[in-house]
Task: inverse folding
DNA sequence: CGCAGGATTGATGAAGTTCAAGTTACGTGG
DNA sequence: CCACGTAACTTGAACTTCATCAATCCTGCG
């Protein structure tokens, strides 16, 4: 919670579409997201795409592996980030507090990815979609008279590549959730959650 | 590579079926696998199962999140492990070398899990199965006159829960790989890879 | 030798993909 | 400010793949 008392951290603003790093790049920085949304992506040789994660405020992205990035990162919604040097990882003494925060974030990331495994491997399309929204709800849901509102700056294709589905199936799942009275769509990028409880139920499978 | 020069590390032998920790347990130890095979598992409320990872020699399992384990770990094949205290994570100064090794392992784990994402989300049954074998090949493949041999101490159900498939589909995929002349089955637990190149092709999707 | 549990194979059906045709939303230029 | 054009989103229909249900086949072990 206290601002890290070290001079190496730099704040930066990122415009939509900007690429922070590519797969294989030497990893110089780790990014701590203050606002906006980032996207972590991997590609197969055959060109198939998997969105590993969306980075929301509070997240860190860019954990290096053997000094390199293993995924691509770009900006989905204009973002403010704090840029940390990866050196803080390798060398605890450089900034002990920051080092601890980075290690904690990496461990939390592992745990979070394990959840995602269950989703990718063991849930139906409607469950995946509900789980996706349910995960965003406490993080970016903004209250409104008709229920919490979630803004989705990413495309349907992004969501599909995150959930291991096609854009069409994501659309159909949204439509079904709407037909069930669980959500309401205000344009494609804005979801109003009418029945959060029901959303949770659908997300957690039955 | 050099044995960690610290007195806190303890070697232990683990029998098949033994449980190292449950989901939610306070995380006291991290395990470095010397031999044998461990299994990391998560369950959903509805009882569905997802095998997060199989731990092979060289792997570390038991990374804590906020001081707790987030998955269950048990022994698939009798194993020898080195037990490290999780304290080495929180407190770099305790054992700087070990701390560095743990952090590196955690980062490698993140990268490895990202590969798994692609597999779960974007590959067909036969591709998943081929990729599973292909990943094991360089790690546990033992040369033989008729080709590298992989031993699979885990059940078909375990493999299915790892790949996000059913046991039947895993069986059929193995059968198809056999029909294609890519592998040969010597009992259910032993796979001979006749055509490693082809296996790689199938794994990487086309 | 027979039994039990896992592995395999077969038949059927449902879920999701693919292909194709609208529909909506949005930015651009007149 | 409106018309247009493009890209994204949505819906529909046919098809593929994988799950499900069920029977049979190993294989290791008492």
Result:
């Amino acid at each position: 919670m206290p601002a890290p008392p070290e001079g190496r951290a730099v704040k930066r603003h990122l415009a939509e579409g900007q690429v922070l790093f590519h797969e294989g790049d030497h990893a110089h920085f780790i990014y701590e997201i203050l606002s906006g949304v980032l996207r972590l992506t991997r590609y197969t040789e055959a060109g198939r795409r998997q969105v590993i994660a969306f980075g929301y405020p509070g997240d860190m992205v860019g954990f290096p592996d053997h000094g390199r990035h293993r995924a691509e990162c770009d900006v989905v919604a204009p973002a403010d980030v704090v840029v940390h040097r990866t050196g803080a990882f390798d060398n605890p003494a450089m900034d002990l507090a920051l080092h601890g925060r980075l290690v904690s974030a990496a461990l939390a990331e592992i745990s979070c990815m394990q959840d995602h495994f269950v989703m990718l491997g063991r849930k139906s399309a409607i469950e995946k979609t509900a789980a996706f929204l349910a995960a965003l709800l406490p993080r970016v849901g903004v209250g409104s008279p008709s229920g919490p509102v979630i803004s989705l700056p990413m495309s349907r294709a992004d969501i599909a590549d995150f959930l291991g589905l096609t854009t069409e199936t994501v659309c159909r799942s949204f439509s079904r959730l709407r037909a069930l009275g669980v959500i309401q769509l205000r344009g494609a990028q804005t979801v109003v959650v009418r029945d959060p409880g029901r959303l949770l139920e659908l997300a957690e499978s039955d």
